[in-house]
Specification:
CATH architecture of the largest domain: 4-Layer Sandwich
Number of helices: 7
Number of strands: 11
CATH topology of the largest domain: Purple Acid Phosphatase, chain A, domain 2
CATH superfamily of the largest domain: Metallo-dependent phosphatases
Low-confidence stretches: 1-41
Strand order of the largest sheet: 4-5-6-7-9-8
Radius of gyration: 26 Å
Order of helices and strands: HEHEHEHEEHEHHEEEEE
Number of domains: 2
Structural class: alpha/beta
Length: 296
């Protein structure tokens, strides 16, 4: 009987100690949650991304010398806007060189092919393990990587189906980034057509490397407006600039951003587009930074 009493007493003491510990822990949690400064103790997750493009030179020996010196491992993601070398897919050795710089075989590097990249698309696909157009979602941002050279500036066939599928089903993303080489949103008849030839490397025309008449405003832009209206910030980022200007930014009346950055043959005004992504706050900010200052 005495043993039973002692056992019961021990159990009571253990339960009492456990109960007090739980109350103490709960008090700490409640005090922290109710504190005006509680949010300040949450550490924000910050990522840095870089869009860079048109790094090609006149020959195929290297990319722009200043761009070659940048430490691209500084960035959590690279968005390549195309025309990275004069003939980017000339050989596996060329792709090895680009991989040493940009880690093109990694999912964190997205590459929208330009006219100087498409000599052997199959070789690039074998090297990267990805299609020349695809979608990718990470940390609350959905990316659409398109090939605007494949059908002379038009987004048709499987590419258009991909775009429609992503835009019709996009959910739980704070931003949508559409990566292209050509500035297809400067199509003739669109609101930016008047300035296209003073911004884009490729003119508005029907040549194989030009901004050809396309279906951006007929088939894609209205869907982007729908996505924007749902609270997803839409950014269209292109890479075929550098000859006239090194950076471009425009926001439409619907809230969609058109951005572009590009390099031109060792020019001192060359810039890249650096984006800061606060994953915790779901914000994305950006600025155009001189190539000499990239990675700092």
């Amino acid at each position: 009987m005495l043993l039973g009493y002692f056992t019961t007493l021990v159990h009571y003491m253990i339960l009492n100690t456990f109960f007090k510990a739980c109350l103490f822990s709960l008090a700490i949690v409640l005090a922290y949650a109710c504190s005006d400064n509680g949010q300040e103790h949450m550490e924000d997750v910050e990522c840095t991304y870089l869009h860079i493009s048109h790094t090609r030179m006149y020959d195929n020996s290297s990319i722009d010398k200043e761009a070659e010196q940048v430490d691209y491992t500084y960035y959590d993601k690279l968005l390549l806007g195309g025309d990275m070398m004069n003939i980017s897919s000339e050989s596996e050795e060329t792709l090895d060189y680009l991989n040493d710089l940009f880690e093109i075989a990694e999912p964190s590097t997205m590459w929208s092919l330009g006219n100087h990249d498409r000599t052997d698309v199959g070789l690039i696909e074998n090297y990267t393990g990805r299609n020349n157009f695809y979608s990718y979602t990470d940390k609350g941002i959905t990316y659409l990587v398109l090939d605007t050279q494949q059908d002379t500036s038009r987004i048709v066939g499987d590419q258009l189906q991909l775009v429609k599928s992503v835009l019709d089903t996009i959910a739980h993303s704070s931003h949508l980034v559409i990566l292209t080489h050509h500035l297809v949103w400067m199509d003739d008849g669109g609101p930016l057509a008047e300035i296209a030839d003073s911004i884009s490397n490729a003119p508005l025309s029907d040549c194989w490397y030009c901004i050809n008449p396309n279906n951006f405003y007929a088939d894609i832009y209205p869907r982007l407006v729908e996505v924007q209206s749902k609270g997803v910030q839409v950014l269209c980022i292109a890479g075929d600039i550098g000859n006239h200007v090194n950076s471009f930014e425009e926001q439409t009346a619907d809230g969609v951003y058109f951005l572009a950055s590009g390099i031109f043959y060792d020019r001192p005004t060359n810039k890249g587009l650096v984006m800061q992504h606060n994953v915790t706050q779901q914000t994305l900010t950006w600025e155009f930074v001189p190539v000499a200052d990239l990675g700092e």
